[in-house]
TrEMBL record:
InterPro entries: DUF402 (IPR007295), FomD-like_sf (IPR035930), UCP012622 (IPR014465). SUPFAM superfamilies: FomD-like. It holds the Pfam family DUF402. Residues 29-156 form the DUF402 domain. This is DUF402 domain-containing protein.
Length: 172
């Protein structure tokens, strides 16, 4: 039996424009941002969403850790058993805008219960296809492992782990 190959896409890039108060998603859609808050360790974003499965998105972009932690506020009937969704990638702070490049791996955190790694197949396919080089692919895996270890060591509590690193986060 042969496995179907997944359709691989280039890394998703987003822009977080602090001056325009917008978030430009990977498809180029410009979304108004309700709240941006900069801290020495990261950027908080809160915005409404026009997605059928969620109506509001909150994210913390944490460049030094190579992660973006999010809470999706799901619409009724689309709830998921997750507290936080974490993207692994490269996150760059700019004077007026921040930029993210997603490196395929994602984590689902169920506070107090588990932290699950997703999309390893996408990362491996991106590397095999030449979309991601070996160094970037390895860094994504190391970042995911370090993040899982840190969250797990704090009882699968993202906030507790980040506080232990001097990065206390709050949500709306």
């Amino acid at each position: 039996m042969s496995e179907a190959r997944i359709h691989i896409h280039p890394p998703k890039v987003e822009t977080f424009d602090l001056e325009a108060r917008t978030n430009i998603d990977p498809k180029g859609f410009v979304r108004q941002v309700e709240t941006y808050r900069e801290e020495p360790w990261g950027l908080y974003m809160g915005r409404h969403a026009d997605h059928p499965q969620f109506h509001y998105l909150e994210s913390w972009i944490l460049p030094d850790l190579g992660i973006r932690a999010s809470i999706f506020h799901f619409t009724p009937g689309h709830e998921r058993d997750q507290d936080h969704y974490i993207d692994i990638g490269t996150f760059t702070r700019g004077e007026h805008a921040w930029r993210s490049e997603d490196h395929y791996l994602d984590l689902i955190v169920q506070t107090g219960r588990s932290t699950e790694l997703l999309d390893v197949d996408e990362l491996l396919e991106a590397h095999a296809s030449g979309i991601l080089d070996a160094q970037t692919s390895e860094q994504a895996m190391l970042t995911a492992a370090r993040t899982i270890d840190g969250i797990a060591a704090h009882g699968h509590d993202l906030g507790a782990w980040l506080s232990s690193l001097g990065m206390p986060i709050t949500w709306r």
